[in-house]
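User: I want to check something. If I give you two sequences, will you return the structure for each one separately, not as a complex?

Assistant: Yes, each is folded on its own. Here is the first sequence with its structure:
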Amino acid sequence: MPTADELKQHALKPTWCPGCGNYGMYRALTEAIEELGIERERLVMVWGIGCHGNGADFYDVQGFHGLHGRALPLATGIALTRPDLTVIVEMGDGDGYGIGGNHFIHSVRRNIDMTAIFHNNQIYGLTTGQASPTSDQFMRTPSTPGGVIEEPVNPVGVAVAQGATFVARGFAGDIPHLKELYKRAISHRGFSVVDVYQPCVTWNKVNTFSWFRERVYKIEDLPDYDPTDRTKAFDLSMSTFHELTCAPDECRVPIGVFFEDEDSFTYQDGLPQLDRPMWKHAEAPRDIAEMLGPYRV
């Protein structure tokens, strides 16, 4: 099994902006992969377009760098045709919740066995700081000089309400906690959603590391914590909305596992013929006559 250093050995040196939250996410994920003992030959990663997509150069694993908003369909194809592999897909908030929002909803609904990590910096960091689907209401950006009109997307709430079987949120400034979330998500059988607050130090001057450190708290520390209660998970997701001017004691931001169903029916469960890589079907062709039944000509 590879160590975190070995995962980086043949990759390029990360080149995100100094201080970017992507570094914390990168370290947490490489350590999670190492501790889970996943061999690089058994791991596939898919990236969309955005600052997070530079990760395609920084991990020494099998990978695919897709089009903007289309990372989930690519990952779906890999997960269905190669059930022997662990599939991790990384997207940005604009990439995954904006142009790829439709794919997000239906991937949740299908419960395909893979892990989806969202780099949520609440801004379009790659294209000079325009407002994204998760930007706070009234935030002023180059694309919204008068302030964002809409309320932000609530990705955790959408995932919980749509029936996701694993939903978590992390913070790039707490690497040990984020690493454990990644390990639980990757180990979960089904579609795992991990939304990560990843401060953009260049363009988002509101939702900074210090802003989050004053407000985040761990869900597992709550006295009535129950990750199997979907209604509580949704209610908790609604408490995340905050205003630009709110004080630390006025808007608290929960991180941790919101919901987990450890015995869920996956999309692959409904397709037992996908019990091995597609190319192996050619080694022992199946007689499909019984499957066709009355539809045979």
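And separately, the second sequence with its own structure:
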Amino acid sequence: MIPLLEVCHLTRTPILRDLSFQLGKKEHLLVVGQNGAGKSTLLRCLDLILTDWTGTVALDGVSIREIPRKLFARKVAFVRQSAEVIPDMTVRRFVLTGRYPYRGLLAPLTRQDEDAVDRALELTETVPFAERKLAALSGGERQRVWLAAALAQEPELFLLDEPTVFLDYRGQNEIPGLLERIRTETGAALIEVTHNLNRLNRSVAAVLALAGGRAVYCGPPSGMMNEETLRSVFETELRILGGGAEGGQFVLPENDFPVR
């Protein structure tokens, strides 16, 4: 079976070095590593924001360099850490911008466009403030709106650059559940960059750990949950709290570990 995404020997000197991995349909991959390890650069290469890389990246068996840009935008949606806010734009109008791969310049909205936006608003639970202005939203609400706009693209693959990074505890708790609903209800695959190692306790298929632009680990989350592997990725002492992998384990910096 052809994987949804196949990355072979992806290199962008000096940031990324010889990365290879696969992602199946409906799978969720977490990408972890220190600042500067190449996580965000990887997403920008996969979205063709950056094109000065070598190696091959194939989507459904076709090189992403050969896919027409408008068709590519129907297949891949990139959700950045933050997006520029247009103060006078309503949530619904912003989510409508996600339909750009399906519309011609100045073309009127179709019933299909409206239905896609309605579904995106419903799935992200942003219907109650669909007519509010973007500038009036909280950080967690805005993150849901960015996800809704990406959903309106109806992609096969979401690229998510730290979707919980600036959120309070409530947002950090809610967004992972929303991402899981997006995966299960749309059938899309997700690649999510995160600094939060405790996201490994969520239902993700695999984790890719980068250090110095190279893959230090790629495999099931349980394989990351040992102190030696964590030390090789983050170059600092981290300790694991909790029982076995089935019971849930949590990672804390050495200095934050409870004193017994």
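Because they were folded independently, the notes below concern the second chain alone. The chain has one domain: 5-256. Helices lie at 39-46, 69-75, 91-96, 111-123, 139-152, 169-186, 227-234.
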